[in-house]
Amino acid sequence: MIKPIQKYSCKFINFLKFYERYTIIRQHNSLARTLMLGIETSCDDTGIAIVDEDGQIISEVCASQTALHVSNGGIIPPVARDLHKTVIDRCVANCLHNANVFPTDLSAIAVTIKPGLPLSLLVGCNYAKKLSAKYNLPVIPIHHMEAHALTALIEYPKLSFPFVALLISGGHSIICFVKGVEDFRLMGQSIDDAPGDILDKAARALKLKNLGPPFSIISGGSAIELMAKNGDPFSYFTRVKSYPLYSSRHRTCNFSFSGFLNAIQRTIRQLEIDNQTSPDEVLNEAPDLCASILYVISFILIKRMQRAFQYLDEKEMLSSYDQRKLVVSGGCAANRFITGMIRNYCHHEAIDLFIPTSKLCTDNGVMIAWNGILKLQNEKIFPQFVIREQRLIQMLNIDSKAKLGLDISKDVTNANIKCERIDIKSFVNFL
Description:
The strands form two sheets. A six-stranded mixed beta sheet has the order 10-9-6-7-8-11, with helices on both faces. Strands 3-2-1-4-5 form a five-stranded mixed beta sheet, sandwiched between helices. It is an alpha/beta fold. The protein has 15 helices and eleven strands. It has helices at residues 2-31, 66-72, 77-98, 118-135, 144-150, 152-155, 195-205, 220-228, 258-275, 286-314, 336-349, 358-361, 365-377, 390-394, 409-414, and strands at 35-40, 46-52, 57-63, 108-114, 139-143, 163-168, 173-180, 183-189, 325-329, 352-354, 406-407. The longest helix is centred in the first third of the chain and has 30 residues, at 2-31. The model is unreliable at 1-9 (pLDDT under 50).
């Protein structure tokens, strides 16, 4: 009789432990009135997070594919999709476990549905539908670039609308005027390549991954930044007075980097011929090339920001001088050379600068969950933000090429604003 009693007692004790843990969890979640699950699969990172209504990050999990794509020479969409499928269930389970949260405690699911790689977007979108149907949770569709623009509100509670946002990543280069959670005015965007894509292709052309770790396991942009530390930013691609040779003089806020990319690749090929380098050898000039590449990209970005603020001033879209605020986000905002130059420019122009921490600049689930919180809080004003009916949720689809907000870029170009000349070269001296 002793053994069965002991066995029963152990089960009962385990039940009490479980019940105590469950009670603590329920009490914890009752204090956080809103818990948002964010799902981000727009490109090559599987980002999952839970954020509360105050912007507190309850839990975060991210499965990175960077090392594999670096070894493959770039992102292969079907491979990225398959990796998302492999890890997403485990990432969500770990995120919930780490937060001591049950799916039924969630207020809603926020998921990236635009823009991005179609195959990758579908993985996150379909998973959100499945989770929503199982636990009867609302779904909040998220625009990836809107989420990047609003991420700074988590870390800077004093940041308020309106502000200018510069969003720079591997797939995008956008400058917009943000008037509210739902009100974005697109002032300019890349008409060809994006800055992050330029850095990745330059790193491949320079064969930086052949240097071994850490170059072989980090992104092209990170490799360029690391190599540029010992380089001269004025060595290549410059004219007299260090004005970049491939910086467009068109009076617009749109970006064009394709000509610059051609110049980079042409210069690398010529140096390899001149130096008679072997196929796997990295040029001795690589540090100078990398620093020069970052300088030119920074120069172009700053000139566009300068025109954007002058346009807003001329159109009196900023009600006071105190509203000169700039948010910089996206993967390239983690590049310290680029943000260092932008920081010095903002200091020179008396612009308040807000840059999220590097972890929140790159693709992540936190920014998606936070954007979901903001939309849920504004549901009464904009009921279309939140989808509650299962029939409509299951009809939800992706939009891989979605644009951002109201496009006023033609108005900016037609304004034909001539920017005041500033010594951008001097901004490098403080880095």
